[in-house]
């Protein structure tokens, strides 16, 4: 029985590690204060192009483009080209939110496991 509990606990640890690793791009994108500021801009504005983001920032156009690219690669922003401009907006899909919820569920499952409280570290 004790071995089964340890095996289940190990599975939960592996599940949490898997979810964290699946979310690495999201965490990296959200870790930067500049990208956090950009994200807050999109919480207010439905969509913006690079120039509009630059207007609200102290950074150069190339720097903003770089940050927008990282947010897009992480699945946080989406882009749509209209004529010569690219407009960015928050992703309409919930994939980022679903991924973060999966991390939380895996962490809660591990944290709430009764076998964890009494596991000895040797």
TrEMBL record:
Q: Indicate the segments annotated as coiled coil, or none if absent.
A: none
SMART domains for this protein: HTH_ARSR
Domain of life, per UniProt, equals Bacteria
Q: Which residues form the HTH arsR-type domain?
A: 17-111
Q: Does the keyword Lyase apply?
A: no
**GO molecular function terms noted in the UniProt entry:** DNA binding; DNA-binding transcription factor activity
One protein family per Pfam: HTH_5
Any idea which UniProt keywords this protein has?
Answer: DNA-binding, Transcription, Transcription regulation
Which NCBIfam families does this one have?
A: HTH_metalloreg
Return the protein name.
Regulatory protein, arsR family
Organism field: Lentibacillus halodurans
């Amino acid at each position: 029985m004790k071995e089964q509990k340890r095996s289940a606990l190990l599975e939960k640890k592996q599940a949490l590690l898997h979810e964290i690793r699946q979310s690495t791009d999201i965490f990296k994108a959200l870790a930067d204060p500049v990208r956090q500021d950009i994200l807050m801009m999109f919480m207010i504005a439905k969509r913006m192009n690079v120039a509009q983001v630059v207007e609200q920032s102290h950074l150069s156009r190339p720097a903003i483009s770089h940050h927008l690219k990282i947010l897009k690669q992480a699945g946080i922003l989406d882009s749509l080209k209209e004529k010569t401009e690219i407009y960015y907006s928050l992703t309409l899909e919930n994939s980022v939110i679903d991924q973060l919820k999966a991390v939380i569920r895996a962490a809660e499952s591990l944290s709430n496991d009764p076998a964890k409280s009494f596991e000895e570290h040797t």
